[in-house]
């Protein structure tokens, strides 16, 4: 049996308060969301703030949604109305988004055949998509 104490909270805490590491953003996810919101044109900021969507498996940590919302609200003016949505199956959002993207006709130019990948390695992805 393994007993976890404060270790249980250290991993998700990095998403809110990352350590200072050269080359990595010192901002946590709520601060990044606030920074992104500040770059949205003023006339649509309120609408964007009411449509914050949490996705990905890391957002499934217990208490993540409430903590994210509280930290984001703390960084915004008090009159800002924020709606944070978190779908229960959000651990599949990466797969869902990838499958939608792959089905778009415009994305076909980025497809990489297995034989091309085996010949050229991961650099072919950058060559075709960027």
From TrEMBL:
SUPFAM superfamilies tied to this protein: Actin-like ATPase domain (SSF53067)
InterPro entries: Actin, ATPase_NBD
Gene3D superfamilies to which the protein is assigned, alphabetical: 3.30.420.40, Actin, Chain A, domain 4 (3.90.640.10)
Pfam family, one: Actin
PANTHER family, alphabetized: ACTIN (PTHR11937)
Name used for this protein in its record: Actin-like protein 9
Taxonomy of the source species: Eukaryota, Metazoa, Chordata, Craniata, Vertebrata
């Amino acid at each position: 049996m393994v007993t976890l104490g404060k270790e249980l909270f250290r991993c998700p805490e990095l998403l809110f308060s990352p350590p200072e590491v050269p080359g990595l953003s010192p901002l946590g996810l709520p601060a990044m969301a606030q920074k992104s919101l500040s770059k949205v044109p003023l006339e649509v900021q309120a609408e964007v703030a009411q449509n914050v969507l949490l996705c990905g498996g890391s957002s499934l940590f217990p208490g993540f949604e409430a903590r994210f919302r509280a930290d984001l609200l703390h960084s915004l003016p008090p009159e800002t109305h924020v709606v944070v949505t978190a779908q229960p199956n959000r651990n599949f959002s990466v797969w869902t988004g990838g499958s939608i993207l792959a089905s778009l006709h415009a994305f076909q130019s980025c497809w990489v055949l297995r034989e091309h990948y085996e010949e050229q390695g991961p650099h072919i992805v950058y060559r075709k998509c960027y």
